Amino acid sequence: MRGSRIAGMGHFVPENIVTNDHLAALMETSDEWIAKRTGIRERRWVVGDVGATDLAVPAVEQALAEAGMTAADLDMIIFATLSPDVNFPGSSCLLQARLAVPGIATLDIRNQCTGFVYGLSVADQFIRTGAMKTVLVVGAEVHSSGLDISTRGRDVAVLFGDGAGAAVLTATEGDNRLIDSALHADGTDYEILMLEAPASRLNPRFTPEMFEQGRHYPQMVGQAVFKHAVKRLPEVIDEVLSRNGATIDDVALMVPHQANLRINEMVARMIGIDSSKVYNNIQRYGNTTAASIPIALHEAVQEGRVKSGDLVLLAAFGAGLTWGANLIRW
Ligand code: ACO
Predict the structure, then answer these.
(1) pLDDT over 70 for what percent of the chain?
(2) How far apart are CA 295 and CA 55, in angstroms?
(3) What is the chain's mean pLDDT, rounded?
(4) Residue 262 burial by CB count (10 A; 0-12/13-18/19+): exposed, middle or buried?
(5) From 11, 93, 113, 228, active-site residue
(6) Which of 148, 182, 215, 232 is positioned for an S-S bond with 240, CB 3.0–4.6 A?
(7) How many angstroms does the Cα of residue 72 sit away from the middle of ligand 1?
(8) Peptide bond into 58 cis (omega under 30)
């Protein structure tokens, strides 16, 4: 039966390292507060005018090289980001132009930290049906230019980093494939994590007053998001494992979304997976949203943490609220 496998991956982060001490010089915070609550030690922030697509391009070039392909082999580009280069058109179109492959299908996914998990599933569906053979899935974010880097915004600003990750999915008849994905959302509490302005429901969309109020910065009720994460992640992990006849003991490596090390440690305890089988890199990159899973998965592959035949579990939650998981036979 036709399915999809990851033929190659790539990732890219900006050179500029911003430590917790750097942030403590800009706002009332400390390395101790940030590290204790989140595990984050440093993150990468772009310098100057750099968009999500600028970070995506080197990640994609690496993924194509790993797959032994060129952009001409792609049938479709799926781009997951909450920080698009421009409000419209979608970053998938900008990336397509940069890769010089006009004509192929492009699609943007607006599912925040769950964006890459959704993207893999969408690519897999197109490949399974025979509509596409090879699909590029990208998660890329530039958060730093959109954060309130002051004491007013410290609860959010310290969490986020910039980066990009990419995977090339291609058709296979073999067992090494994306086995299944579980996708969910609940918009009831969308306001607990959102960036409100400028946007269509405001008329005018942006005013000097909104600028003064900081309504163009992300707003988050951190503890509510935390509670959502530690409930939904174990649920969706159990769902995708049990409906494929697997248990957590069968999983060789879990790559969770990197939002907070405490969340990932708590979830690991709840589902009963040994910490040696969970890949975390939030300490170095902060939360890169749609990019966090492909960056972490590619690092794990590069470090030899995944071998052919391993069962790999990806799981994410984020704004929306959205959550989901992918189960892969590597
Ligand atoms: N430095 C120092 N103090 C701070 C900072 C900071 N950076 N930020 C907040 N504080 C203060 C608060 O003002 C508060 O002070 P008060 O007690 O005097 O009012 C105190 O620290 C405690 O704040 P809490 O919000 O209660 O801290 P909490 O323990 O909940 O940790 C955190 C906050 C780390 C944000 C946590 O709630 C969390 O990780 N939540 C999940 C967030 C998340 O995963 N978001 C991303 C989802 S991804 C996506 O889709 C975009």
Answers:
(1) 100
(2) 12
(3) 97
(4) middle
(5) 113
(6) 182
(7) 45
(8) no
Which atom of ligand 1 is nearest to 260's Cα?
A: 39
CB of 260 shorter than 6 A to ligand 1: yes
Q: Which of 329, 51, 302 is nearest to 175 (CA)?
A: 329
- Domains of the chain plus CATH, in order, are 3-174 (3.40.47.10), 179-329 (3.40.47.10)
Residue of the CA atom closest to atom 47 of ligand 1 = 318
Residues 6 or more apart whose Cβ sits within 8 Å of residue 254: 237, 268, 273, 277, 278, 279, 312, 313, 314, 315
Q: For ligand 1, atom 42, which residue shows the shortest CA distance? A: 222
Please indicate whether residue 155, judged by its CB atom, sits closer than 6 Å to ligand 1: yes
DSSP symbol at 210: H
Ligand 1 pocket, residue 319 CB under 6 Å: yes
Q: How far is the CA of 53 from the centre of ligand 1 (A)?
A: 29
pLDDT tens profile 50-100: 999 999 999 999 999 999 999 999 999 999 999 999 999 999 999 999 999
Q: Which residue has the tokens 């990009």?
A: 164
Q: What is d(CA 77, CA 237) in angstroms, rounded to the nearest whole number?
A: 27
Query: Each residue of 195-241: pLDDT tens digit?
Result: 999 999 999 999 999 999 999 999 999 999 999 999 999 999 999 99
Q: For a substitution probing ligand 1, which of 223, 265, 289 has the most ligand atoms within 8 Å of its CB? A: 223
